[in-house]
Amino acid sequence: MDDAEIVESPLVDSGPFEHVKPVLEPLSASAHYMGETGMGTSMKLVGNLIVAAQMEAVGEALILAQKAGLDLNQVMDVLDVVDFRSPLISGVGRSVVQRDFSTFFALRHMLKDVNLISRLAEQLQSPIPETAVVRETLKAAVNQGWGDESVSAGQSAGEASRYDCGGLDERFRP
């Protein structure tokens, strides 16, 4: 299956997980036993932290590339093949460049996830300073009425509010 989701099950030991694993495997790219109840949620939040950081990074990188006068299609061609390539960066980056803001994951859901990540980090006394910046960027976009827009549109919200982007689609101007 191409669109993998982490499926959490409240299992205390791996015995029951091994029993249901054949049922779970066709539903996702992989199935992993992460430990006691709640550990799957923690893993999901760790993954979402990486997603949120990449989303912010691709938005900032494309704004910088545009300001530097680079052709954004060429930038994405390079990002698709060099060592720091990422399917997430390619997908969201291409959406931003093509101005395709179809909602596949709403900004308000990303903000919810980042709030959960922040709470987990606070409980574990694990500093996550980059995530604080991402959280504020997401809060600003949601507060500007972008909550139901795609995370890729959120990059344009940041673009519009932080920079003079004359070519920005009227829908995505502040």
Based on secondary structure, the structural category is mainly alpha
Overall shape: it is globular
Global mean pLDDT: 80
Q: Total number of helical segments?
A: 7
Span of the ends, CA to CA: 39 Å
Unreliable segments (pLDDT under 50, ≥5 consecutive)? 1-7, 162-174
Percent of residues in β-strands: under 5%
Biggest sheet features:
none
Reading the helices and strands in chain order gives HHHHHHH
Number of domains: 2
Class of the largest domain, according to the CATH hierarchy?
A: Mainly Alpha
Helix content: 55-70%
Radius of gyration, taken over Cα atoms and rounded to an integer in Å: 18 Å
CATH topology of the largest domain: N-(1-d-carboxylethyl)-l-norvaline Dehydrogenase, domain 2
By CATH's scheme, which homologous superfamily of the largest domain applies? N-(1-d-carboxylethyl)-l-norvaline Dehydrogenase, domain 2
Number of strands: 0
Please state the second-level CATH architecture of the largest domain.
Orthogonal Bundle
In short:
The chain is mainly α and 174 residues long. The chain has helices spanning 14-24, 39-67, 72-79, 87-97, 107-123, 129-146, 151-162. It has two domains: 1-36, no CATH class; 38-172, N-(1-d-carboxylethyl)-l-norvaline Dehydrogenase, domain 2, CATH 1.10.1040.10.
Describe the model.
This protein has helices spanning 14-24, 39-67, 72-79, 87-97, 107-123, 129-146, 151-162. With 174 residues, the chain is an all-alpha fold. It folds into two domains: 1-36, no CATH class; 38-172, N-(1-d-carboxylethyl)-l-norvaline Dehydrogenase, domain 2. Mean pLDDT is 80; it is low at 1-7 and 162-174.
